[in-house]
Amino acid sequence: MLSGGGRLAAQFRHMNILIFTAAFCVMATVMFVLLSGVIATISADYAQQYALSSAEALSARINREIDLVSKMVRSGAVVEWLADEDNEEKKELAVKEMTDKISELYSYNLYVGVEKSHNQYSMFVDNAVGDATIIDVLSTDDPDDAWYFKSINSDREYLLDIGIDLELQRKRVWIDYKVMKDDVPLGVLSTGLEFSHMVGELFTYYESGNMRGLIIDEYGDIHMDSALIRDREFLFSKFNARIDEEFPNTELLAAIESHLHNNGGYFEGYSGETVKPVVTKLSSGMYHNVTIIPIKSTNWSVVILSGRVSLFDISYFIPILITVLVLLLIVAFITSAANYRLIFLPLGKLDKSLTALRENAEGHVYGAERDDELGELSKTIQDLFAKANIDALTGVYNRRFMENNLEKTMEMLSRSSGLLSVLMLDIDFFKKYNDTYGHGQGDICLKEIARATSTGIMRQNDFTARYGGEEFVAILPNTDENGARIVAEKLLARVRELKIPHSDSTVAPYVTVSIGITTGRVTYGQSWKDFIKRADEALYISKRSGRNQFTYIEM
Fold first, then answer.
1. Structure pTM?
2. In this structure, are strands 301-307 and 278-281 parallel, antiparallel, or unpaired?
3. Rounded to 5 degrees, what angle do the CA atoms 458, 462, 466 make?
4. pLDDT one-digit tens code per residue, 301-322
5. Domain spans of the chain?
6. Disulfide: which of 393, 399, 460, 541 matches 551 by Cβ 3.0-4.6 Å?
7. Rg (CA), the chain
8. Helix-strand-coil percent breakdown of the chain, rounded to 5?
9. Fold of 197-307
10. Parallel, antiparallel, or unpaired for β 184-194 and 550-552?
């Protein structure tokens, strides 16, 4: 005997099994006949197109950064400062000019190495004008500083490399650009593109197994590999692999060696008429074709390996699609009556009950009493509606609950002109916190603040909700101004006691909050938005007055 949970699926399966078996046999026969000819005529057109697309996309991204850094290294202000590093006036002019450009960089930051002193400066987009921090003294004995000396001693204006940003702890595609004056090197400007983003954007569609995308340099070292885009070690730490070690296929290696020999070094430029992808057929191994194309302004090349069952010319699929469509339409007409009775009619009733629940925020979900898959679905939806009032990240009430509950609270208080206090709380300099410590740590900070502001300091009818981003709202029914002030003081103290480090805050060395308070008597027809708006105005005053404090204004 079938269990209740499987009855609906069993009824549907038994009713359709004969129809779909017959349709499957016909479709399988037709598809086999058509695809047998398609498989024999596989081409490398799509592999070539993907190689070109990857090369152009990466070239555009890198060349944009190169152009931006090139403008900085050719700036008279930058050249003069690196030639006379101790001159504060020249430094201020140079840093101001570079700060204006940093906002256009992908990473919003820049490193500057000075040849005369070997000082290394770090600059970010939100630095104050004239603020360039020395973070290191470059040394030939330090492997982490090899990028600088390699660039200084190079015959090229710039070098590309992949390495770890020790300050931000991220893997970057580095552009190290030399600053020159009268053929004398003065220093190096360095910026990086986020490695994990580039790998994901360029190679996500190669995860099928039939396609594999690589980027190699002029020495045959692999810098990007679509097969490793889920590998944390590859994305966030040093990774060393060579093409001849990963792919011992002699035909493939011969094609790559020939390409590198003919196009060694940095590719200054090319056009579709003069340089085309190099395509080589492979007689053995899991891959059928290898396509190679250089990336402009780099010493990298895109290598696309396509499997023996890869992509086909879309025209071959037209007869198959028409045949499948006709058969599926026949099947759809035959089974529609049974599907409607078993599935769609109950789902329609479920949809109506959910619509009513969404509009009234109360009621019953249809089907929860059923002993089948629809019943399980209805029970799950009912549980989800119960959880819909909780913010998934912080665990406190969400804005939806706040709006609904506050509206009902005001309706109740309006009957007796009762008092209502609303507190709006905002984490000070939270964007800087995220920029410094990362969004993961930012989420932890939000959870800690939410916990501190919602436990142990409020009455049964009071509640805290996350209003959005780093803003929280505390609702205090039947609370006067004095009570609201006491709660605000407690909230400020609880947050301070957490002592969450915040090195970029200008208020304190740890995370603080600003609070706006309003209190008023609730009258009939008054909107909850009026209280929220007034509390937000008070919050603005707190932030404008120095933060880490509360401000009270009356309704």
1. 0.47
2. unpaired
3. 100
4. 888 887 755 444 445 566 766 7
5. 4-38+316-359, 58-193, 197-307, 399-552
6. 541
7. 32
8. 50, 20, 30
9. Beta-Lactamase (3.30.450)
10. unpaired
